[in-house]
Amino acid sequence: MREITYADAVREALSEAMRENEEVFMLGEDIGVYGGAFGVSRGMVEEFGEERIRSTPISESAIAGTAVGAAMTGMRPIFELQFSDFITIALDQIVNQAAKIRYMYGGKAKIPLVMRTPGGSGTGAAAQHSQSLENWTAHIPGLKVIQPATAYDAKGLLHAAIIDDNPVMFYEHKLCYRTTSDVPEGKYVIPIGVADIKKVGTDITVIATGIMVHKALEAAEVLSKEDINIEVVDPRTLVPLDKETIIQSVIKTGKAVIVTEAVKRSGFSAELASVIVENESFDFLDAPLVRLAGAEIPMPYHPELEKKAVPQVENIVEACRNLMSHN
Amino acid sequence: MTISIPNSAGLTDEDLKNIYRVMWEIRFFDEKVDQLFAQGLIHGTTHLAVGQEATAAGSGAVLRKTDWITATHRGHGQTIAKGTDVNAMMAELFGRTTGTNKGKGGSMHIADLDTGNLGANGIVGGGFPIAVGAGLTAKMKGWNRVALAYAGDGSTNEGSFHEAVNLAAIWDLPVIFFIENNQYGMSGSVKKMTRVKQLSDRAQAYGIEGVTIDGNDLMSVIETTHQAVEKARRGEGPTLIEALTYRWKGHSKSDAKKYRTKEEEENWRKEKDPIRRAKDRFIAAGVFTEEEADEIRKKAKQAIEDAVKFGEKSPVVAVETMYEDVYAE
């Protein structure tokens, strides 16, 4: 199989879906000839034209709301928020409109839209271009939330998001765009709500989301040299969440480390922790679970501070070593 | 097929009689809601459009069933005019399964996709971008449909208004932005909340046509909306219509109306009642006689009485349905 980048995998899914269904179209800032801020839609306007790759003014509320209206009347829009931080400007349309319309209307409407947006830190773009806000939408009933870590997952899950009849929030990570993995050609669908065990292990379950999946896998390599064998679980979708895979993994290992980039306080890491302690996995814990997450500060500009503000490989390694000493 | 009042929409006397009936249905509906609420028979909150019947009835009359609207939180009238069954609307307010939204939306969220009503909105200005999205669908699918976004004067101070009008303008979308300027955004007088003399002046900023009309003059509403709709159907893009009107009641149930005077209210009620003005005009033109007008009014009243009965005797929403329809399967 060929190896391609995450950005290319996203583009392939978008292109395949657009070739397959004329109702699928894209809108967002600079997605046309510019190719999007991260080059994800590069070349697409040449194939699909400006009618279907619609570059918009800088109007996040109108972009999201237009997607809602188009979805409700028979199209399948995919809109890009240039940075996930800009969701603040689009939130009314996402939270008060897209998420609720089906329920408020007694099931008489469907809103098949996808919001794609790059989140996360690591580019030195500081506090307004580096947040991990996926938890905000995970909190809202009516939305589905996906956070793929690998190129393979990104393509298969994006196809799933596009054919889903619900509003789906699709959080990409800026640092993931250049990562590569084996990706099949052609359409394949990864079901929404199924976690993936990225590495099988026996000693500790590390549940990581987004870019932290890569860091957890790096930590696993380091730890394997010390005969610590960790299992890396990637939920892939926050809503709906595959609780069973998490529970079963913790039952097997008896220890859990949760790693998210988003700020710890009231973050998704707390949701993952509660899944473990609210279920039978609680009885199998032989050490307190550990949460590694973002520092409770706006993302700083200075590279050293930026690095320190989110979990790194060494933090995961250290947390696992400490947990092993619990035995 | 008699046309006693020449109009570019080609509405016959029969059509005008229907519109006159719709105006009364709107008035009786909202007066009845006011009464039911006071009696504690329906709950939640109410935003009544008594006094604003011409804007809804006139604009709704020139839309086709396949056209779309987004309604406001003061949207009962707009919804009735677009053709939604008043029985289902009343049942919704009673929280019954036969309601437009199966009892899960209530007054501020009444929607009816079968008649093109994409929903009333509890968020001021929230419907603008949604209407733009519907207009985009029409354009991309090559459907000869338009989307009309109703909103109040206060909504034009929201960011979503400006973003949506601009987007519809640059893409030449078939969207009509219909502003019912009833002079107050809750307690905020339009005079205090913006320095533009007319809200339609705001159209200039987006390179589209803006027009201000007497929203209590039914024929003026019909004529202006029809022109805008036809223009949109020709692919010539959006129009901003500002219709000057007045709500006779307060903003919602808790409103003591301290921000306006009794004299002002009396003036609008006595001098500018849109239904009485339509009736006088129609009688003078020979559309109907005084007796026929009275007959239409009685029928409208009966329709609303029947709607209340329908709502009251419909099954109450079962608690078991609470988790239904959060997600599409």
Describe this structure as you would to a colleague.
- The complex is a heterodimer of chains A (327) and B (329).
- Chain A is α/β, with parallel strands linked by helices and 327 residues long.
- Chain A is built from 12 helices and 14 strands.
- In chain A, β10, α8 and β11 (230-234) form a beta-alpha-beta unit.
- The mean pLDDT of chain A is 97.
- By secondary structure, chain B is an alpha/beta fold.
- Chain B has a single domain (13-312), classed as 3-Layer(aba) Sandwich (Rossmann fold), CATH 3.40.50.
- In chain B, 43% of the residues lie in helices and 11% in strands.
- Chain B has 11 helices and 8 strands.
- In chain B, the strands form 2 sheets. Chain B has a 6-stranded parallel sheet with strand order 2-1-3-4-8-7, sandwiched between helices. A two-stranded antiparallel ribbon of chain B has the order 5-6.
- In chain B, β7, α8 and β8 form a beta-alpha-beta unit.
- The termini of chain B are far apart.
- The interface between A and B is large, with 45 and 46 residues.
